[in-house]
Write a structure and sequence with these properties.
There is one protein chain. This protein has 98 residues and is mainly alpha-helical. The chain has one domain. Helix content is 68%, strand content 0%. The protein contains five helices and no strands. Helix 1 runs parallel beside helix 4 and helix 3 runs antiparallel to helix 4. The longest helix is centred in the first third of the chain and has 20 residues.
């Protein structure tokens, strides 16, 4: 079943990645984390292309997810690195159950 879906998944992944990659700044690519993100993107495309030969439910979801996530990181890199993410994990005694 997954083998028939592979060309559609590859096409959708390439289209989504192209739309994301249009907005990526070149200066973000030539950093250390940018190079690793590009390597992760290439690995994601490689795993996605493996669906044509070895198709299962793990490969068909892992490859596109990795490729898209790496490009999303490159696209929103400055927002991720500059905004402080506050995880408020303060549990007061009223929240605890006995």
């Amino acid at each position: 079943m997954f083998k028939e879906l592979a060309p559609y998944v590859i096409t959708a992944t390439v289209i989504i990645c192209t739309l994301i990659a249009i907005k990526i700044k070149k200066k973000d690519v030539f950093t250390t984390d940018g190079i690793f993100a590009v390597a992760g993107f290439a690995l994601g495309l490689f795993i996605t292309s493996l669906n044509l030969k070895y198709s299962n439910n793990y490969l068909i979801s892992l490859g596109p997810l990795l490729a898209i996530a790496c490009l999303l990181y490159l696209r929103f890199r400055t927002k991720i690195l500059t905004n402080s993410i506050d995880f408020n994990l303060d549990f007061s005694s009223n929240d605890k159950k006995s």
